[in-house]
Amino acid sequence: TVFGSTVVQPHLTQVGESFSFGATLQLAKQEFLTATVSRAKRSPDGQTLFALGPHLATRTFDIGNNRLRREMVEGIDLGFSTDRGTFGAKVNVFRYRADDFIYQRNAGLFYDPDVRQFRVVCVRLDECLPVQRYEQDDARFKGFEAQGVARFPDVSIGLLEIKPFVDRLGARLNDGTDVPRLPPWRYGIELALIGE
């Protein structure tokens, strides 16, 4: 029983499957090219199928969709890595095609948990939850990841490693709009001090 109404969910049986093939080519002693081709069929999970209520971790009100089908993702990854002792780097580019990609779309409503009502307008976002509905559409993904490392072994208390990184994911649905709720550019520097 949800919000005073009994909701009957249909019995569903779905099976996932996956396949991948990878190859590595050694260019020099510490330089490698990699390629991976993959295909996977993923069944929707219980959250995407049957959600109907607040999701406090994401501060949303989620509505599942029991008509979701398996999504199929096909992709290719190409990578290069090198490690020269004091310097190293990894770069990976990828491209994926997803048929029936499962995602959350904003329903254009808000849920006020204090009065247990849906609203068209919310004055304060800390007092209501955006309503998100699970949907499916074909989508295309492409992006890259890059990380470098510089090692300084002569630091008085050990080895200092500086690791700059950047990655970018672009994704569009078939109608040309961006896939909702994906992260933008990510970049930063990681510092590690490894004691002797």
Rg of Cα set = 23 Å
Uncertain stretches of 5 or more adjacent residues: none
Give the N-terminus to C-terminus distance in angstroms: 60 Å
How many E strands? 10
Shape: extended
Helical residue percent band: under 10%
Average pLDDT confidence is 90
Structural class determined from secondary elements = mainly beta
Strand content: over 45%
Number of helices: 1
Sheet with the most strands?
10 strands, mixed
What does this protein look like?
Helix content is 3%, strand content 65%. It is mostly beta strands and 196 residues long. Strands 1, 2, 3, 4, 5, 6, 7, 8, 9 and 10 form a ten-stranded mixed sheet that branches. A hairpin with a 2-residue loop joins strand 1 and strand 2 (31-42). The mean pLDDT is 90.
Describe how the helices and strands are arranged.
Elements: E1 17-28, E2 31-42, H1 46-50, E3 52-55, E4 60-63, E5 71-83, E6 87-112, E7 117-119, E8 129-155, E9 158-173, E10 186-195
Parallel strand pairs: 4-8
Antiparallel strand pairs: 1-2, 2-5, 3-4, 5-6, 6-7, 6-8, 8-9, 9-10
Short description:
This protein is mostly beta strands. Helix content is 3%, strand content 65%.
Give keywords.
mainly beta; 1 helix
